[in-house]
Amino acid sequence: MHTSKHWYAVYTRPRWEKKIVAQFQLRQIEHYCPLQKTRRQWSDRMKIVEEPLFRSYVFVRICLLQEQTAVRMVPGVINFVYWNGKPAVVRDEEILTIKRFLRDYTEVRAYPLQPGQKVRIIDGVMMDQEGVVEKVQGRKVYVVLDSIGYALVAEFNQSSLEPVDEK
């Protein structure tokens, strides 16, 4: 029986990410829900709150054969994200990249995946990462993580990017 653990993206009910994380903790299911601090205006005050970077998504690190049903049984979990008829594996490097982004950049936002040019980042925390860049505007660059279908936005000097030759 195959028992290695991999990261998977789980699609959730809208605004249930934190409730699902609490359930994963109770059930001892390894998970990651990237949160970002953002300012919200109430009628009487401004408040900083933590919101999910990827709305309606939580990542789980599980042995699919042994724990898939347990994940699906958590209230609020709709389904795994599928690719080619199977739950899509999210590479460890992509989870680490998200963690680095959130640690090193204060303004990180997620955007739906769009087609674009392949690039390699040649310096900084993202060094040697390849991704698809939709556009470069000033210092802002859209770096795409393929398996989850989202782009993380960070500021890079244009000189920090080089095109990847597609052969």
From TrEMBL:
GO BP term (any one): DNA-templated transcription elongation
- In this chain the NusG-like N-terminal domain maps to 4-102
- Kindly state which keywords UniProt assigns to this record, in alphabetical order: Transcription, Transcription antitermination, Transcription regulation
Pfam families, A to Z: NusG
Instruction: Cite the InterPro entries for this sequence.
Output: KOW, NGN-like_dom, NGN_dom_sf, NusG-like, Translation_prot_SH3-like_sf
Q: Which residues form the KOW domain?
A: 112-139
Superkingdom to which the source organism belongs: Bacteria
Q: Which NCBIfam families does the annotation name?
A: antiterm_UpxY
This chain's protein is named Transcription antitermination factor NusG
